[in-house]
Amino acid sequence: MDLKQLRYFHEIVRLGSFTRAAEALHIAQPAISVAIRKLEAELELQLFQRHDRKVSLTAEGERLWLHTQRILQAVDDARLEMQELKGLSKGEVRVGIPGMMGSYYFPPILMAFRHRYPHISLQVIEGGTWQLQQMLETAQLDLAVIVQDFLPEELEARVLVREEMRVVVGREHPLAQQTAVSIEDFFKEELVLFRNGYFHRKIVDRLSAEVGIKPVIGFETNLIPLIKSIIKQGFGISTLLAMALENDPELVDLPFAEPVWLDLCIAWRRDGYLSRANQAFVDFLLEKPEPSALRVN
Predict the structure, then answer these.
(1) What's the confidence (pLDDT) of residue 292?
(2) pTM for the whole structure
């Protein structure tokens, strides 16, 4: 079993096809087929179920897939670390950011980082907490912003900011006259929520479970301007981070009766290698001033 065979195996699983894997690897399909047959013969196991042009993993293949991801990531980490010892930094940061953070917290920070490190490229991926966590664990991302409450053991993290989830209603809504909103009263209303997989939705689901009330969901969207527009027109209420609610006179935001606080973290793989570029980005985030101090008027 060698690295070439494992890389071939990895691409077949990732793309679900010998043909597409061969195209991605820029090799002839017979070569990749021969390599996998040799791997199966060496292991004396069948790794794939062949179904016409599609393939799926056998139970034995599933076990090898888990090892393959770790092995190839360790090799890539070792190669990068050796390059950096020679001063050959990749100069790239791949970071995943939830939509609300990406819209209201990170823009001035990203611009300030680029100003300090103009030769480091930034690839920013927007997604839900679950999606970003999966991409981080499979090395599709180097870093990701995750809520501390949902942090798995495989990831290491540092807290960036503590933020409050606020109840958001239109100015004419009856709840707008209150000083705080109970969880029970919140769930009596029709709600505008993010789709499943986003931390916003996970928090609402957790609150729902705590009080045993099933939410009435009128709209599902990840578009924050649309959420605000729906609330302003009186078709529902929601809960958003306080940072997303500044300077909007048409909305009223209130605390929950028992305030809901979130610790938002920058996370990376615990067993992965953090490149110099990524370490610079983490250090910058942890030493940075508040985003309001970075904005250009």
Answers:
(1) 46
(2) 0.66
